[in-house]
Structures are given as C-alpha cells and as structure tokens.
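Consider this today:
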Amino acid sequence: MRYRYSLSLLLLLVIALCTAGFGAIFEVKEASAAETQKTQEPASVVVQKENGLIDWTKNYIEAQGMAVAPAGTKGAQAKALARRGAIVDLQRNLLEFIVGVQVDARTTMNDFMASDRVRTEISGMIRNVELLEGEWDEESYNITGRVKLPEVLIVVAPELKTPAPKPAGNPPKTSGKYTGLVIDARHLSIVPSLSFYVVDESGREVYGVNFADQKFLAQSGLCTYYNNFDYAKGEIRVAAKPITTKAIRLGADNVAIVIPNSAAAKIRGSSYDFRRECKVIICVK
C-alpha cells in the first residue's frame, strides 16, 4: 500500500510539472506572437477613392484607366488603340485625383492650379506617368499608373517656403547625435498632407519645408505616415536613434504640430541635422 501510495504521489508530481512546463511554453509562444505583431510592418495609411488611391506611407498616388477598342478593329490594332485610350483615361483620372490632394490642412492642390508654372509641371508629370500593368481582354484595355507624392510636393514647395526663422545665435550641438524624429499624433485629428510644420510650445518652428534639402524632399517627401508607433521607432528612415515624442496639440489652423520643448531642444541640439534629409515619421490614427 505504501508503495502504491508513493507511486501515485510521484505520478501526480510528474503531471503537475509537465502541465507547468507546457504552460510556460505556451506563454513564451504567446509573448513571441505579441512581439512579432508589435514589430510587423503595419498596413499603409491609404485614402481610397473611386478611380485610385493615395498611399501616404509609401508616398504615391495610384489610378486606373480603361478604354474599349474602336468598332471595326481587331487583333494587335484593336489592342494598341484601346491601350492608348486607357492611358488617356488614366491621365484624366490622375489629374482629378491630384487636384484634390491635401497640400496642408487648409489647402489642396487645386488652390495652386491657378499658377501657370504649377499647371505646366503637373501636366508634364501626368504625361510621364509611371505605367505599372495593363490587361487586355480582347475588348477593353485596363491600365494602372502611379505618380510619386514627393514629386507633387516639389511642384508647390516654392509657394510653401517662408523666410527661415532666425535663431538667437548658433546654439551648440550638445544634445547628442539623433538620426530622426518620430511624432506620435494618433490622438489628434491629423489629415495626412504633403506639408506641415513642427513647432515648439512657444510656436518656434523646428521642422518643415524650410529645413529640408531639395534633393531629399524630392526623393522621400517631408515625412512618412504610419499608424503603428512601435514599428515606426525602428523604421529604416529614422533608425537607429530617433527622437520620439508625443504631440501636444495642433496649432496654426491645424497646419502646425506642437511638440514639447524638451523634444524641440533635442532636435535643435542634435550633432546630426536629420531634418535636411527629411528623416521624420508622423504616426496617425
């Protein structure tokens, strides 16, 4: 009896240990899954419309065009004519899309189209649209094309530049070397746009078109928009040591993003001026 009793206790002990072990394994797996979800690339910040979309994370406008082959045409001729018509339709849809793009919280591209220079440059951009893919079903041709958002920004950038703020003297670069800026603005009603300003609590500008080098502005735009703050902090655009901060509020007709003075001081004092290369991410809802 004593032997059986001891054996039973031993079996119960083994079962308890195994259960605890499996529980620990499951907890580790759950933690790993949660960590993966945190660092996994989030979905793009996209505005979808009838004939296309704006991807504010990957910085492009995408639209579609479609045309049917003219009556009486067949084979290669029908395909070529339908394709030509589809490209014209794509260009028309892109123009409609572009004029509605938010330049900032107050204005759209349509507000700048009165300028002959802006109209000419936008027309040239649309004529040279990047064609992605086409599909021919023997009756109609469908095609997709893209325009890069930074190229649209460059067209209106001269109108957005203001006299650069003059700092009192040249403050020493003492806050360390930072490689970018990530602003958490998910709690604010920010509409993604081509342009904005970042200011400190007293309204002094610390980032915007004035601080950006034209070459980098044309390559990547003023910022990238994400909806995942944890992912954004390690994104290649701002890695490896970004300044991370939470926006306080919106100011100046919602065009300016107000950040704490402590974060603004780090930006101004960084030994590496990442603003020239537009190494900035804004996190929105």
User: Anything to note?
Assistant: Residues 2-39 form the longest helix (38 residues).
